[in-house]
Every structure is written in structure tokens, then in C-alpha cells.
Amino acid sequence: MTRPRAASERFVAQLSARTRSRVQVIYSPILEIKPLPVQVEAVGIQGLIFTSANAVNAAASLGVERGLPAYCVGPATTGTARAAGWDARMAGATAEELVAYLLKHRPISPLLHLRGEHSRGNVAERLTESGLTVQEQVVYQQRVLPLTPEAAAAAIGDAPVIAPLFSPRTARQFADIWSGSAPLWLAAISQATADPLNSLTCARLKIAREPTPKKMRKAVKKLVKHAMRVESGETTD
Question: pTM (2 decimals)?
């Protein structure tokens, strides 16, 4: 598991008991999330935009006003924002869908996009250019990490390695640090996440049907099933 430890543990816990029983889970976060010690400028802001749960957690730790509505990408981010006390609504499964939603409904602005130092989609810029004023502020940083010793050992072994990847940045980092000879089975949450993996030789690359945790769990389940068939000598479809 390549996500930060808490997020990885939540994902694994939601896999079926059968799937968990068929694998050895190795936690090897390759990005470390660090909230920045900043003062969030929310004076006059009419609503927040969250495109990741990491931004929600950073905003919560910084004491950002909970009375503001929050427009979120994806069910995980939306659920995290609600749990933290915001009136959160899911405005799409991707940044593209969020932009389209906000341009259609045009909530009172200005809005504030709280994000990490590396962010895709140019959300604030695109919305502002379309007449909906959106400011942005970086509230956390992402530091790349190497594979843990346990993960590095698995990479040079003979057993299949199944790696779920949840963002283009994580995928790029994984492609940069992977040098193992073990059979590699990859699950990507989106096509954009799959694209940086083209440089890797893998047994199979499965792209989730939708960029949601539920569809990623299904993708991982299928990879586990196929990998076990290969190991047992059965033919996969």
C-alpha cells in the first residue's frame, strides 16, 4: 500500500475478508503529507473547495471556519469534510466534474481552494477565468519517500506484487523508485494515474471504472483473483 498509513489502513479494512486473507499487506507510503504552519486567509470567503482528504485534514488542524459550505471531489474527501464538521457536498468525482458543477450552480463567491503544493486541474484559475472568483492557498506539502525495507524485499522476490495507486503524483513516484523483478500487478484509480506507469513492465494494469474507493476495491479484488490464478497455473481471462 503506497498511500499514507492511515489512508492505506482504511482502504485495506474495507476490502472483503476473502481478499485480505489471500494477500500479505505491506505498508510502504511513498508520499508523506505535512500540514504547513500557515494562517488561512478566509475573510470574506463564502465557501471552500477541497480536492483531497489531505487538504481537509490540514484545514481542520489549522482551525479553518467550519461554518462555510465545502465543495468536494469524491466521496472520500466529502466524507472526511463532513466528519470534520463542514457542510460538505460532493461536487463531482474528479476536478473536471467539480469545475463543471460549480460553473453550473454558481454559488456565492469568492471561494477558497485549499490544496497541496502539487495539485492538478488548475481549479481556481479556470473557475476565475469563467467568472466565478476563486482564490487558492497551499495548506500541506507532499514529501516523497523510498520503499520500506519490507517492500523493497518483496520487489526482488518471486511472489506477485499488487500495488494500488491513487493519484498521478503517486504513480510517477512509484514508477521512479520501482526497480524490482517481482511480477507487478497495478491498479490505477484513473487513466491520468495510469499514464505515468507506461514505463513499467507489469503483468497487468487495471484501471478503476470510476475514481472512487469502491471501484478501486473491486479493481484490487480482480487483480488478486487473476494473480492467484497465474500462480496456480490456471489461465486468466
Answer: 0.79
